[in-house]
Amino acid sequence: MAEFGRLYEQQYAVALFNKVRFDMEGGGGPQSQLLQRKIPLENKSIFSGSLYQCLEENKKWRNRFLFVPDTYNINYYDSKAAYDKHLPPKGTINCAGYKVLTSMEQYQDLISSSLPGLKAKMGSAPFLKFPYQFPLILWHPYARHCYFCVETEKEQQKWHAVLQDCVRHTNDGKNYQLIIISYCLIKNS
Known about the structure:
Blueprint: H1 2-25, E1 45-55, E2 60-69, E3 74-77, H2 80-84, E4 91-93, E5 99-101, H3 104-114, E6 134-139, E7 146-150, H4 153-171, H5 174-188
């Protein structure tokens, strides 16, 4: 029994992290968590392209150029010309802990489930009007949400896959795992 207790203690943190990860990302089966992985794309671009981003200050939409380096953080620029001139990015999004949504219905469901006592009405007017019918929303339980939009369903699928990869790769980092495990241990104690 003592040997089992020792093994249980070693595996508890991994099992707890798997549960938290599954709750945050949803779907998919559990994967090994604490293994080192090779970085085959080191010093290379993962993806780049243009889409519309909502500016939270004034709720206006701007066409932005997004560049995803091998770190899987998202750098956004005013334009491709600004990127080509090697100007600093307007901002950077670290996708750790985010969830990628492709509709306002998904967003309202998450808001309703994460804020007890508050229910979003499905028929009510949205607080944000998208210029096209293909939104991409980066939702985080404790950080600012990011709102993007594209013109076609094909673009939406492409960007959804890219953003999902960014979330998955940044969530696999050791620092994020330790933060989540620490948070869960503190919360459960």
